[in-house]
Amino acid sequence: MVTVLSLGGSIVAPDAPDTEFLVAFTALIRDWLAKDNSRKIIMVVGGGGPARSYQGAYRAISDKPNDDQADWIGIMATRLNAQLLKAIFADMCPTDVVYDPTKVELFTGRVLVAAGWKPGFSTDNDAVLLAERFDAQTVINLSNIAKVYTDDPRTNPEAKPIDSISWTDFRSIVGDEWVPGKNVPFDPIASLHAQKSGLTVICAAGRDIENLKNILDGKQFTGTVIGPEHQGMEASR
Predict the structure, then answer these.
(1) Which of 20, 58, 141, 166 has CB atoms 3.0–4.6 Å from 6's, for a disulfide?
(2) How much is the pTM?
(3) Percentage of the chain exceeding pLDDT 70
(4) How far apart are the C-alpha atoms of 30 and 97, rounded to whole Å?
(5) Beta-ladder partners of 43
């Protein structure tokens, strides 16, 4: 049984690596894997604060910044974060960090770590591709928000939290285009791909370790379920 986590860089490295979070996260994942030898987990990690910082520097300095170059900067940040996770789970993760999700042949060990691939989308899309490759039906998207909202709650006080939503309605919120460093609950390109594949995505707060445990154990949780159907996976209200 393979579980896919799209692990937001903002919770792994908001500015620098968050060691307090990583200690708690590592303990949870190791404990969860130890309870069932059939369990495997894929972690696809984003770039976080370092990606945005370096992308911001590039856009401030360059006379003609372009999205491909900004994306490559972000991709390199994801690879640094991924190498950190690979090292933390080295005894369970014998495979090198995955850069190209379309070329993964085998999943040896209990943990597989992946990073950014190429310009045009975020690591969310890599998570969707790996879910397809290893027959996972759900991607757990962990970020610094507890739920998806009808609009950005930081700028719109009328924005409402959402417990479950269809892909069509979700994509009307996030749009169809990817911009490097774009702050959305789930990448628009990944959303289209997930919709076509019939995948379900759970969006939840990554730093809430107890809530993540509930998601992994199939218990009631706080978050937003996105997909064609949500049978047996309703978030708490």
Answers:
(1) 141
(2) 0.91
(3) 94
(4) 19
(5) 5, 113
